[in-house]
Design brief:
Four copies of one chain form a homotetramer. Chain A is an alpha/beta fold. Chain A folds into two domains: 119 residues, NAD(P)-binding Rossmann-like Domain (Rossmann fold, 3-Layer(aba) Sandwich); 184 residues, Dihydrodipicolinate Reductase, domain 2, CATH 3.30.360. Chain A has ten helices and 13 strands. In chain A, the strands form two sheets. Chain A has a seven-stranded mixed beta sheet with strand order 8-9-7-10-13-12-11. The longest helix of chain A has 16 residues. Chain A starts with a strand and ends in a 15-residue tail after the last helix. At the C-D interface, α1 of C face α1 of D. Chains A, B, C, D: Belongs to the NAGSA dehydrogenase family. Type 1 subfamily.
């Protein structure tokens, strides 16, 4: 049995880790830490985990003795404990933003704090970094918006098809965490739509970092809060550099398209794009490319680790729309963390996270 | 492998059967029938079942050759096919109301139609009829409201503690099924509460049938529609026949209380009631009795087969409140149907249905 | 122009007073006080009041010089300022619970605090106390649950038709006020139903006080939180003392029914009940009795001062169901406060509060 | 008294016209037509209009004898009756799409039907066409998305500041009308986000028509359905042609900026943009430009005729975000229709439509 510890288990991502790990055949939850709820049964805080014997503990970092340690701690807190956790010999999967940036100054600029313990980590998006994750001791689990946005746009950047991407995301309220504030007060956010951090959300540079690896694409990101509990619906708008005529096969030699004349044949381009995405993700168990004419529904992935991508349409102005949906707490957080654990431990990658979404 | 057929798989209960059975290690889905969607891939109708190869088929009843047949058909339709399905040699679990009533005239009165094929069936509530279900060829899966209401009140009736029970239920909208109507139109039922069939809902006599087996208790039932997708929250109000003094132990000799003087000691009575419930359900995996002071949350059972019961309080007028929550599509329909299948087939009763709820 | 001051204007009831009073032709808002938001424009806190020049002020109680003073302050706070406010010569309409109880010990028991300034006040439910309100200097504006529950049951108590009433109320979340807490956090209360203070809500004794004036009826009250922004849906269950035979006319001599044999004729009784309610409220502009067969919709009164009452049904057990709906912030708070002001000032009672609800 | 007729009064826009006109001091509703509900009291279909004596009538078009006729009929239906209605001598305000397009072929392409009675109409957006509306006999009331999108982008087009605009709109479900379908079924669209007609919504060319009047701007439009009853939240993304250095005053000579070098000073540009908007709408009663740092809330305009515009931010890529919010049934339909009527009849423009929104 692989022993795991969840550091900071009283929030939503902690709750999801517990819910999912309880069904994992190769794993035993050894500790769930919480300073605030020390000695409290887990089901008093997570009342859906009824019947479990788990109890929160307040234990010192250096006393944690587990194979895998999930740090479901806020950004700024993780960097204070991760080095010590690694010294215990366990491998760490950090769900905060503290280790996601390869350029430490980007982190410090956008998070507004000094990083006290920078170190190398693997960015935990298996669809890009699976091989690196296998060997990693420290995985930085991606942010929720970045997971949906990167998956939706990776083929566009890798094949140099667009120069600018406008990412208009709509998130459920659980993305804001378990702590209350005026924005997340039910009478405020029910029957409402709210844009926030319109140009200043720190998931913007995280998306930029990953998509900018392959081309000079510039990412513009704006998140919205919608009256949904879980899920991120990401609408990506971008203008195709070149619309392709029928003699070009996008799926084969896509880089060559850069200097081709604008085409009249939008339908062909659309099919090429769809095929490009299907090719990119054909071996990915958790990324589903929908057929032409289908648009993803947020509620199709509720509670699941799947990402659905679809809605590929190109309008008369050459704008391409690509839409992705994920559950922010699963593929956007705890499910992906378990996916990373499965890869790191050599388990079947889908173990404990392959349930379909709860719909309706 | 046990082969199963789902007759009428395009609705919500059909979708839930598919979702849950896909993870069942002992079962293979052989057919999912639908006249309307013949030859359509299942994921076109249930877009969360993305990646499955299942396809709807329109097959004749007598061609169905399966060990277990779930009839997720409307009331009035089931009775036309169940006899023929039983003749194929398969065992039938009927999710409609057609076989739930032991007195056929009650069915005909409340459903307003003549029953064309009355026959003996076992009422599929495992917490009462587990032994009968083991041997049954035809199980009538309970209604959603009755499941929550009977579990919440069974100890009261079996121990003759109350004469009248007022059941004020609040249901999510998925209980109305996948077909549209003006009531379930989003702009109508969002941000709204609606009472319907205030004294005339046909789940009333179904509750009465089961609770009335043990005493002369009279059930008064009123359902409400609340802006929730899934779940039934049942508030039961009843006046205790006798409030117990401290010399009486409710958990031991409860029938004897009938002629005891009203007590001053409401707290003792409350504790006795809680203990009575804990004793009643102590071997039930899917019924959780909450501790004193805890009230069930509907969202703790979302997507799960669990029933939580709690909220035991007695006010100065001697009114007892008992609250139960279930997911109407799982414990109230498809999950319970699979629980019945597990019992009928000798599988572990919890197989494929023991996931915790999705919260938040 | 009548000058008014709103003490404590930053919460929901303050916002509603401002919204409604801005359209009142006879009234000028002189002050809106707030300690926290001193000198802040009102539209920074109430962003729907866009374009208004109003600004919050932090002014001493004794400096308030207005004809009418609304105290939209929490219970426990009002009693500290009301005596001084009355000394300024203004009339006070208090929206807290501090002056609603005729028996001060009931207040102190249920609110858990000592009352520092008990004094006579008129209970501000115009449908009962209109004549007293006309002459009052201090009006205690009723609670939101009591407004809906008393209107729904007043004829039953006044005519001695029932001994016990079970009031099962479903409230929108704005009833909890503008301050955040874990219960009202969107991810917790969306898609959920929660019962709270199952037998211990302090609106229970307030309902009991008013309905108990006319008979020995005993009130049992349980509130529920539903995912609705505004509105209280009250389901009242009671067993009719006597079901009437056709020789009795409920609308004429209802007290005489007390000793009549149970009747078979439920339909006649139902009609009698409906007529009784229509008679009771026939001169009330804000109480609408629905026709036989109609049930109130919560969304029909959203944003309005109306109460709709309907759903009159009697089941085979003799249980009568009566349903009322109000907007908790309007008829249940600020709208009713303005209705009281209109009565106290001799304005037309409906001025500024006769808009229909916003539906859908 | 001005007499008005509402043709097709049983839908949501009909209901809003009734709700608002009931408080109009200069207007009497003479007829509300409905073929389906002939002789039915209005409050049976619009239960919030409780207490009114209005009754639906099925009357022939040529029998309508009113000063103002609102046609709240579906597109395709209006063009069959408007010519005859104009012959009665009444002025017509058409809420359908039938008369919104100056180029009839655009209408026929996007609506997919032949126009049987093309004629000149004034596009009823008072913020552009007030003078023309004063003299019009036929006003084409704008679509809901176009109202929000045009108001949010008019200054950008008129001052030639951008070449492309991406309009990502989020609408409440009432925009889909009162008729049911699978998409608007509560269990489907609650807790969900849905993109639809991603590049093919017919409000796209309507927005293009109006914004394209002043520059060569190209509009790309994608609507989303969010779980909100009322309201349209429009996020406009566009890349500024030139970011201005501090020597240029956007509010004075904005056309001259076209050939200016990109600037470093984003803050100045932002302030210029805000001032430009404030100048544009300074005499408009129903358009409120929010201060720097404020973003519009959808729920601030619920039930009101106001449009709030704000959120002006420019990111490092030169992308400008502008956000507008309206209530789709009021400023986006019936409220704007009454605003047009007020202008046509010489009433104060704000009569009967100047209530603040219902918040929370």
């Amino acid at each position: 049995m692989t022993e795991v510890t969840i550091v900071g288990g009283s929030g939503y991502t902690g709750g999801e880790l517990i819910r999912l790990l309880q069904k994992h055949p190769n794993v035993e939850i050894k500790n769930i830490t919480s300073r605030q709820y020390d000695k409290t049964p887990v089901n008093k805080i997570h009342p859906h985990i009824q019947g479990s014997e788990l109890v929160f503990k307040d234990i010192n970092t250096d006393k944690i003795d587990s194979d895998i340690i999930f740090t479901a701690t806020p950004h700024g807190a993780s960097m204070n404990i991760v080095p010590e956790l690694l010294e215990t010999g366990g491998k760490v999967i950090d769900l905060s933003g503290d280790y996601r940036f390869r350029d430490i100054s980007t982190y410090e600029k956008w998070y507004g704090i000094e990083h006290v313990s920078p170190m190398d980590a693997v960015y935990g998006l298996p669809e890009i970094y699976r091989e690196e994750i296998k060997k990693a001791d420290l995985v930085a689990n991606p942010g929720c918006f970045p997971t949906g946005a990167i998956l939706a746009n990776l083929p566009l950047s890798q094949n140099n098809l667009v120069d600018n991407i406008i990412i208009d995301s709509k998130t459920g309220v659980s993305g804001g965490g378990v702590n209350t504030n005026q924005v997340f007060h039910y009478p405020n956010c029910a029957d409402n739509v709210i844009a926030y951090k319109i140009i200043s959300h720190r998931h913007g540079p995280e998306i930029q970092q990953e998509l900018g690896e392959y081309s000079n694409v510039k990412v513009s990101f704006t998140p919205h809060l919608v009256p949904v509990i879980r899920g991120i619906f990401t609408t990506s708008h971008s203008f195709l550099n070149n619309l392709v005529d029928e003699n070009i096969d996008y799926t084969k030699d896509i880089d060559a398209t850069k200097n081709i004349d604008y085409s009249k044949n939008i339908d062909d381009a659309k099919n090429d794009i769809i095929n490009l995405y299907k090719k990119q993700y054909k071996n990915e168990q958790f990324v589903k490319i929908l057929d032409d004419g289908e648009t993803p529904n947020l509620n199709s992935v509720r509670g699941s680790n799947f990402a659905h991508i679809g809605g590929f349409e190109i309008d008369e102005n050459g704008r391409l729309v690509v839409i992705s949906v994920i559950d922010n707490l699963v593929k956007g957080a705890s499910g992906q963390a378990i996916q990373n654990m499965n890869i790191m431990c050599g388990f079947k990658e889908k173990t404990a996270i392959d349930s379909y979404g709860i719909r309706p």
